[in-house]
Design goal:
This protein is of the alpha+beta class. It is built from 2 helices and 2 strands; from the N terminus they run H-E-E-H. The longest helix has 9 residues. The chain is elongated and about 65 Å long.
Length: 81
Amino acid sequence: MVMALVMVKIDDQGRIIIPKDIRERKKLTDEVVLEETEQGVTIKPRSKLTLEQFFNHKLKIDWSKVKKLDLSEENLDDSWL
């Protein structure tokens, strides 16, 4: 179902302007996700990341290689958190 069909130009640097009413209806703010499909390109609002996704994306951490800290033998009663 097509809600709006709008023709826009692509500028010399590959940018397009999404009309304001569509940006507001679809809650497109400072970042979006572009998904390439066989039919074309879909623009979606950026979804909220989990903490692990955030750190994987921002820090490029391979969590499978991170050593796990085993505190099962430690007495944490006197620890300051």
